[in-house]
């Protein structure tokens, strides 16, 4: 800096240098705008993923935004269920896809409390029906068949356990591994799965769910249970919290 000052004193006439700030401001503004946009994208996408239950992304059913429950009806058919249908006044019919992270969210956060408060007390039955979505492929269909095989071989309590363990699996081999670890008779299980013994039940679940207005998973029909297995009530489209289900159930119990 000192040398530059001394050299300046020797110059008798120096050219005047004019900085045009406008020429710098435009590129600078573009750079700053890019940084802002990049930051917004980063924070918007941070933490997302197909197995992130706080922000699931691999399902057709969007997170619930408002409580609008249209009237709907369906049937329990011959699907697995918990509770005593001879005593229960109500039914919660779930249409499920095992490759659906929103379905897993419902299983982890809501289902057990509903069973405790309404099924175990004799007020309702909880019905498990299948609704494997096309874009989840064959693995969703295989999972539905495998779960029904477990129900057929070992009963509904083992079915419920298996049901909770096979969400978001990545290979068909896992279906066999989980069943084996649970002590299921593997000769019967392997034959049942290979024969697609319950494919007709899975197909009927898709048909009945569609007729009830189910378009994504999870979907529920919650309402009055008739003697013939018909359930007439409300369509709950999505993984709503416990309180939303309780409100509907309590209204019907009145």
CATH superfamily: Glutaredoxin
Name the poorly predicted regions. 1-21, 23-31, 35-58
Mean pLDDT: 83
Radius of gyration: 29 Å
For the record, what CATH class applies?
Answer: Alpha Beta
Total E-strand runs: 6
* Second-tier CATH architecture: 3-Layer(aba) Sandwich
Distance linking N and C termini: 89 Å
Major sheet: arrangement of strands: 1-6-5-3-4-2
Beta-strand share of residues: 5-15%
- The rough form would be described as globular
Roughly what percent helix?
40-55%
Contiguous helical run count: 9
Question: Which fold name is given in CATH as the topology?
Answer: Glutaredoxin
SSE ordering: HHEEEHEHHHHHEEH
Number of domain modules: 1
Structural class by secondary-structure content: alpha+beta
The biggest beta sheet reads:
6 strands, mixed
């Amino acid at each position: 800096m000192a040398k530059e000052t001394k050299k300046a004193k020797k110059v008798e006439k120096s050219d005047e240098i004019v900085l045009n700030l406008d020429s710098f401001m435009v590129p600078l503004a573009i750079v700053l705008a890019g940084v802002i946009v990049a930051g917004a994208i980063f924070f918007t996408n941070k933490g997302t993923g197909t197995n992130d239950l706080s922000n699931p992304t691999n399902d057709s059913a969007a997170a619930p935004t408002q409580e609008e429950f249209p009237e709907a009806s369906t049937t329990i058919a011959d699907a697995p269920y918990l509770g005593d249908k001879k005593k229960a006044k109500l039914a919660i019919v779930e249409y499920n896809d095992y490759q659906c992270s929103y379905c897993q969210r419902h299983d982890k956060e809501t289902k057990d409390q509903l069973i405790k408060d309404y099924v175990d007390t004799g007020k309702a039955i909880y019905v498990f029906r299948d609704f494997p979505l096309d874009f989840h492929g064959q693995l969703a269909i295989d999972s539905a068949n495998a779960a029904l095989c477990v129900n057929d071989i070992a009963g509904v309590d083992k079915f419920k356990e298996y049901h909770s363990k096979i969400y978001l699996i990545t290979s068909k081999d896992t279906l066999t591994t989980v069943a084996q670890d649970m002590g299921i008779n593997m000769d019967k299980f392997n034959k049942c799965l290979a024969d697609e013994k319950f494919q007709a039940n899975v197909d009927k679940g898709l048909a009945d769910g569609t007729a009830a207005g189910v378009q994504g998973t999870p979907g529920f029909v919650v309402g009055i249970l008739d003697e013939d297995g018909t359930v007439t009530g409300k369509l709950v489209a999505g993984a709503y919290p416990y309180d939303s289900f309780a409100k509907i159930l309590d209204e019907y119990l009145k």
